[in-house]
Design goal:
By secondary structure, the protein is an all-alpha fold. It is built from five helices and no strands. It starts with 9 loop residues before the first helix and ends with a helix.
């Protein structure tokens, strides 16, 4: 989990992982813009493909993403599981 390149302790590494993944920051806003642009392009691409199932043609799974709140909630859940695993190993 740690690299000598950064010179951080396990506690510092966990702190920064949590801060980057579990707290809103500008990176999430940038990601949402890219997600929306990609969704728009994919919808344009698949619109005329009649052989696709509607769930795929309408990019329903992709539409369900793109939420900062949902991403942070999922990140917190995954981080807590990861942190528990790492703590047990140390």
């Amino acid at each position: 989990m740690r690299s000598p390149l950064f010179g951080m302790s396990a506690e510092e590494s966990l702190y920064w992982l949590e801060r980057c993944l579990c707290q809103e920051h500008q990176g999430f806003d940038v990601q949402v813009k890219y997600h929306q642009k990609m969704l728009k392009n994919m919808l344009r691409l698949t619109d005329s493909l009649d052989y696709l199932w509607p769930v795929n043609r309408e990019m329903r799974l992709m539409k369900a993403g793109g939420s900062i709140e949902r991403a942070i909630t999922n990140n917190i859940k995954a981080f807590l599981q990861f942190k528990e695993t790492v703590t047990v190993l140390n």
